[in-house]
Amino acid sequence: MHWAEYREGAKKAKIHLGFDLNRGISLKLHLTDGKEAERPFVSEIVRPGQTGVLDRGYQAHELFDAWQEQEINFVCRTLEKTKKTIIQKHDIEPNGIILYDATVKLGTPKVNQTKKNIRVIGYRVNGKVYWVATNRFDLSAEQIASIYKLRWEIENFFAWWKRHLKVYHLIARSEYGLMVQILSRLNHLLIADHLLP
Question: Which of 78, 122, 156, 189 is packed most tightly, with the most Cβ within 10 A?
């Protein structure tokens, strides 16, 4: 797999997959070498008008601006310590799960601050505090928290896929051949589990 550079003496491939939370199915799949970054694939996988639900590995302020330019919506977990320059605070229900709801510029001014306004929501579930950034100003803070919770459906799918895919013996070494093997195995699993009619 000469195309799948990872490090000296190691070749790895990486799958970038778009998962439709509404229908519980994967939509788009890109195969790259093991060094390829995930963040640029958001623009490839999420279409304008759709909302990408992303873990904090995708936190990139310049991409938050770019996605808004492309009319791509996002709900992305962020680091709690990320600097927030408050533009407007939003009302929150007392004694609810929402701790923080504000329109902000995210990041450090003149370093990595967003050019476009972002909404940041902080909420607590089972004693754990989550911070998410979004450009969905049309939803309640509670709805945003619920959307991020749906991300576990993605993790459940990947856990199922990794457990059952078992593509350890490679029939082909080319990028195209590996993609065919992965898709063939996934199709076999879906039929076997009666997920397809």
Answer: 78
Its pTM stands at 0.76
Residue 3 clears pLDDT 60, i.e. is over it:
no
Q: Is 95 left (phi over 0), alpha (psi -120 to 50) or beta?
A: left
pLDDT of residue 24: 67
Q: How far apart are CA 120 and CA 158, in angstroms?
A: 27
Q: Which of 114, 119, 77 is nearest to 101 (CA)?
A: 119
Tokens of 142: 């509670």
- The residue among 177, 91, 191, 187 whose CA lies nearest residue 142 is 91
Instruction: Parse the chain into domains and list their residue ranges.
Output: 53-149
Model pLDDT for residues 52-80, shown as the tens digit of each residue: 888 888 889 999 999 999 999 999 999 99
- Count CB neighbours of 147 within 10 A: 18
Q: What is the pLDDT of residue 129?
A: 95
| Tokens representing residue 90 in the block | 């939003």
